[in-house]
Amino acid sequence: MHRITQIALFTALILPVWADDANQAPVTTAAATTAAPTVNPDEIIQKFAAKEKQFAEALENYTYRQTSKILELDDSGEAVGKYEMTADMTFDENGKREEHVVYAPVSTLKRLILTGEDLEDLKNTQPFVLTTDQLPLYDIHYLGKQNADEIPCYVFSVKPKKLVAHQRYFEGQIWVDDRDFQIVKTYGKGVGRAGDQQFPMFETLRQQIDGKYWFPTYTHADDTLHFKDMDVHMRMLVTYKNYKKFEGKSTIHFGDVVDPNAPPQTEPKKPQ
Asked: Which helix (H) or strand (E) holds 238?
């Protein structure tokens, strides 16, 4: 009998790939074409990092619904355990971001346990954002041009320069739109100092929201995690839907209606 062992997964656009699609081929990444770039790679990096910073700031002003599902599969590909949670990312009355869980049945996962690293990856690593402030943390190398769902893109490899305790990083490849200079696709995994925790390879896709920003809408993983004492086949699907720009509400209080023909009121005298 195998003991329960920890696993690090990510929670966090739109394809019907979840329902019983055990025969679906796992997501893989293809080598990018090594054509010479029309723009200097360093210049491209600076441009998309600046756009990513704008994207990250814009996302803080949007509400959306995130649904996360994780299946634990047996040797035949049948689900033997499931984790699921749906949460609305909204704002409180003071305009502060808050997470409102709307659906979270009891997990039936048997050999996988979600950890703090899992939750961090679900929030930040799978919907990976690479802003100007984060560039010094990563080694970034240009790989060439390649289409992502018919979108011409620059492809880069991304790897953290060093791992710092209690920090999560992304390692893999990113596809940057050659017109808007925004990340439209990522493929890789979360990395960090996490002991005998294993992390699945995942693919995250973005879609253009409000004709301006490329927001994450779909993350998928189908991978076998190799622990010291067992292998576990898992499948994950995270969707991000219903993006809406948050408009702060203000309340204006009005006084009583004033009759212009009424005699002026005098201030009451103070008692002697």
From this structure: strand 231-245
> Is there a contact between 130 and 52 (Cβ–Cβ < 8 Å)?
yes
Average pLDDT over residues 243-272: 51
Confidence of residue 248 (pLDDT cuts 50, 70, 90): low
Percentage of residues in the chain with pLDDT exceeding 70?
Answer: 76
Which tokens hold the place of 185?
């696709």
Q: 33: which DSSP letter?
A: B
Beta pairing partners, 190: 170
DSSP state of 60: T
Q: How far, in Å, are 6, 197, 233, 257 from residue 142 at the CA level?
A: 35, 30, 32, 68
Residue 56, pLDDT > 70, answer yes
3-state SS, 101-149, equals EEECCCCCCCCEEECHHHHHHHHHHCCCCCCHHHHHHEEEEEEEEEEEC
For residue 247, which amino acid is it?
E
* Contact (CB, 8 A) for 173 and 157: yes
Q: Distance (Å, rounded) from C-alpha 14 to C-alpha 36? A: 33
pLDDT 10s digits, 85-130: 999 999 988 888 899 999 999 999 999 988 889 888 988 899 999 9
- Region 242-271: mean pLDDT is 53
Residue recorded with tokens 């039936």: 108
Amino acid symbol at 139: D
Backbone torsions φ then ψ of 58, nearest 5 degrees: -65, -40
Dist. CA 230–CA 249, nearest whole Å: 53
